[in-house]
Design brief:
Rossmann fold, binds 1,4-dihydronicotinamide adenine dinucleotide, binds (2S)-3,4-dihydro-2H-pyrrole-2-carboxylic acid, cytoplasm, EC 1.5.1.2, elongated, proline biosynthesis, 12 helices, amino-acid biosynthesis, ProC C-terminal domain-like fold, alpha/beta, 8-stranded mixed β-sheet
């Protein structure tokens, strides 16, 4: 039995992924703060919606998917009910395994995960790190949970905040880029729907080439960039506006914010 505690955007994305992967809804529990939300999850997925205490007592694996700012309160609430052999998986940005362990006490195995919203289309990037009491079997169980919804990579916990900035938040940067490019299409007089189609297909095509060709992104970009052509005119403007430097600073800021989150 798996329980997802906190079923907002990420919790629900993981829940839907488990159901798509063939887990029986009867073997999944969810918790929600609001009654209407609980009812919606029941209807949509056929899972049991229970209290945090019941989930903590009953499930073999607890997936904690509340916001980092709500994690301390949730851990205090469930601590009296979590037996020492439960696998606890936290997907919250910035929350260390030590933060979870120190509040649950004893030797509870904790695995820290950073995934991303492409869980919804089985194309997530999930990175996982083990806490002090998590053994190989707990890492394997976590991989088995996440592999049906995308790629899974083990990383040292010291890299989790960087991974949060890079792949956890990553999809947002691409959506932001798409918005900006569609705006550019509008500026050039293109209908919005056509501009969105063109940009979306370009980003999908580029992503698949990147994933499947085995080529370095520089090689792929150079193949588009004809001497004296259009692409280099655009790249020159991006460089003039220091877009690369902006990405370095932006992702560093996200990493720093992830580091702060455990303290509220
Ligand atoms: N949205 C994203 O792309 C990603 C989010 N995350 C992490 O996932 C976690 C959740 O983020 P979102 O889903 O975006 O936020 P959200 O605000 O959509 O979801 C959090 C949910 O937890 C519920 N909640 C809070 N306290 C609760 C409690 N004591 N008992 C039961 N439910 C409770 C809230 O009502 C809400 O539905 C965060 O820790 C975030 O860092 C991780 C990777 C990506
Ligand atoms: O913005 C956030 O804090 C969460 C964590 C990674 C993606 N979304």
């Amino acid at each position: 039995m798996i329980a997802i505690l906190g079923t907002g955007k990420m919790g629900e994305a993981l829940l839907s992924g488990l159901v798509r992967a063939g887990r029986r809804p009867g073997d999944i529990m969810a918790t929600a703060r609001r009654q209407d939300r609980a009812e919606a999850l029941r209807v949509r997925y056929g899972v049991r919606v229970v209290s945090n205490a019941e989930a903590a007592k009953t499930a073999d694996t607890l997936i904690l998917a509340v916001k980092p700012q709500d994690m301390a309160a949730l851990l205090t609430e469930i601590a009296p009910f979590v037996p020492a052999d439960r696998l606890v998986v936290s997907v919250a940005a910035g929350i260390t395994t030590e933060f979870v362990e120190s509040r649950l006490g004893a030797s509870v195995p904790v695995v820290r995960v950073m995934s991303n919203t492409p869980v919804l289309v089985d194309e997530a990037m999930s990175v996982i790190s083990s806490g002090a009491h998590a053994a190989e079997e707990h890492m394997r169980q976590t991989e088995d949970l996440l592999r049906p919804v995308g790629k899974v990579l083990r990383i040292p916990e010291s890299q989790q905040d960087a991974a949060t900035a890079l792949s956890g938040s990553g999809p947002a940067y691409f959506f932001y880029l798409v918005e900006a490019m569609v705006d550019a299409g509008i500026l050039l007089g293109m209908p919005r729907a056509a501009a969105l189609d063109m940009v979306t297909q370009s980003i999908v095509g580029a992503a698949i080439m990147l994933r499947d060709s085995g080529e370095h992104p520089v090689i792929l970009r150079e193949a588009v960039t004809s001497p004296g052509g259009t692409t280099i005119s655009a790249i020159a403007e991006l460089e003039r506006h220091r877009v690369r430097a902006a990405f370095l600073d932006a992702i560093e800021a996200a990493r720093d914010r992830s580091r702060q989150l455990a303290s509220g």
